[in-house]
Fold:
Amino acid sequence: MTSRRIITLTTDFGLRDHYVAAMKGVALDISMEANLIDVSHDVEPQNIAQAGFLVASIWAFYPDDAIHVAVVDPGVGTNRKPIAVHAAHGIFIAPDNGLLAPALLAQGALQSSDGLLTHAAGVELINSTYHRTPVSPTFHGRDIFMPVAAHLSTGADFFDLGPMIEHIVCDQVSNVREESGVIRGTVVHIDRFGNAITNISGAVLPPRLSVSVVGATVVGLSLDYQAAEVVAIVGSSGSLEIAVRNGSAAEELGLKVGDEVTVSAAT
Amino acid sequence: MTSRRIITLTTDFGLRDHYVAAMKGVALDISMEANLIDVSHDVEPQNIAQAGFLVASIWAFYPDDAIHVAVVDPGVGTNRKPIAVHAAHGIFIAPDNGLLAPALLAQGALQSSDGLLTHAAGVELINSTYHRTPVSPTFHGRDIFMPVAAHLSTGADFFDLGPMIEHIVCDQVSNVREESGVIRGTVVHIDRFGNAITNISGAVLPPRLSVSVVGATVVGLSLDYQAAEVVAIVGSSGSLEIAVRNGSAAEELGLKVGDEVTVSAAT
Amino acid sequence: MTSRRIITLTTDFGLRDHYVAAMKGVALDISMEANLIDVSHDVEPQNIAQAGFLVASIWAFYPDDAIHVAVVDPGVGTNRKPIAVHAAHGIFIAPDNGLLAPALLAQGALQSSDGLLTHAAGVELINSTYHRTPVSPTFHGRDIFMPVAAHLSTGADFFDLGPMIEHIVCDQVSNVREESGVIRGTVVHIDRFGNAITNISGAVLPPRLSVSVVGATVVGLSLDYQAAEVVAIVGSSGSLEIAVRNGSAAEELGLKVGDEVTVSAAT
Structure:
């Protein structure tokens, strides 16, 4: 039986260089049948939060046995751990630098207060049987993360990858806070169209609301991007977005990743 | 039997965001064996004509049972129809906004005068059995077009997708006109090398000719890009192109999409 | 038996246009099971040396039966030969313009002095049975290189592709010279992070060294990118690199492809 197990890739390596193709070669050399799917390699260099947003935005659309590899790794070669987390909806492989927190929080596999895994198992990737050797000090994507993913895709035992861990780093998670009826979140991604995507779930919004960002206040939610000059909308990822009709909210309002967004009940 | 049915993707979603990976996840969740091939995701945002050019430029190289999904969809959420067209050389799935017209015209499956399908069957995609639910008002690529393509790839009945349609929109088609021996067309694409590709087929050119665009007139066709400083050439897509030797015609002559091109017999 | 034979692609065609998708369609029309893997399509237009570097950087990670197609082809339509080389670690298909030299040198399949193939067989691709016809004078990637690769992937006889050749062009190879204990090489690639990758192998470096490039001299090798402001490091590809901590060596030192790099013993 062939097993076309899916392995998704999210990195900041770009596609001008040989890095991504090297990773794919390593995976295919272990498993000819691996089904490699690019999420994005255009993460801003070393932007862990952006990679975290991307992984959190795609896992729900993949089969539960998909393996998601994400490598944005400014600490490569230092003592940050390489980890894998087996959750109900996917296996996630990355450096332990907060990258996986948004995806795991979104599926209820992590406590944001202390980084405790819940309904999910974690391991530190130290069993070199599943690594490419020698491991380069600068390219764990090729030498640890991808070989581990490929071995898992061919049936390696998750718990043989290394010792179990109970907590993961979740520093990079921008928490959404609610106080006195005001919700405060942040812009976590600017998409290609210039829409500013926040970390505020559409599920927590009051029925009548006012959304404020630097340079604009919008009253009411719209159902599509054409409804007004500046719209607040629950986008396709289920989060609150700020958009400008036929234009770029990022450019026209000066929005950028990290900007605060507040939502209050409109009167 | 495994069925590695090909599904090509052409969008303006870029590869920095999660949109394309979400679409691929939806397809693979329906059919693990779908063979997803990217045409381009770098269509200029909302440029229907450019997407139409790309699809028209690639269908002929694919097997006739390939499924071509193209999503450049400024009208998403309005009353434009989502459609599929089953032609002799491929199944085409897109919003009904003119995107499919160039590909269907090129294979004789459409009348440019009134958008009537000929030797091809069309359906409006309203059977929600084949959609992802709930359908987002802003992302039919993920919720309608890709699930329909994936279900077709596993054997769904084309005529069960929705009611038949006889006409499609073909507003975006730039017609080539011939009058008094002068052929008038337009630049439909500027490629990476700066070559200006027109919608004038190499098959209709007179044996000795003069080609005029803004800023240049070229006498005679060349057989390769090195033949002269500025060349008129029938490029690999079979259309008339304007190119500059070892340079960019777009930059050096100031050519852009939409510019008029006239061809007349040279004396 | 299905054969998911790997075909890698390295070109300067970009992903905005239809060229790469046309090549993939041609391959899949010949072999539905071809496993097409993109190395990069963002090679600087007509930069043969950069494409050569990329192919040389990835073959070692792929199975030995992988087929590597590389098309950077300023001489298309002239009398440069289309060739294939069957080496111990891969089959390589490209125009005979020096592109394949770095990969073949690296695996000991080529003599740099005169371009003689050793432990490798070469053929000139003239048997039109394996081409798409008619062959466009401007797009051999689609009409010769990819069809040949796809036919090989389904079992075509290598020696039926055309007459054997004993030498290939290796003009583009920047040789590394050593004289009086000083090693002289060049920068062959600037990666996404601005690291300047040289053609000097880490294996030939003296234990204590001084590395000089335009604008900087570095004493000693570092083990990771964080060790100092400017570091000399043997990167993941095994070659000497110049990097700037949390920055771009290319921008901050003004380095570019072709710059000379000298290594001498430090006292």
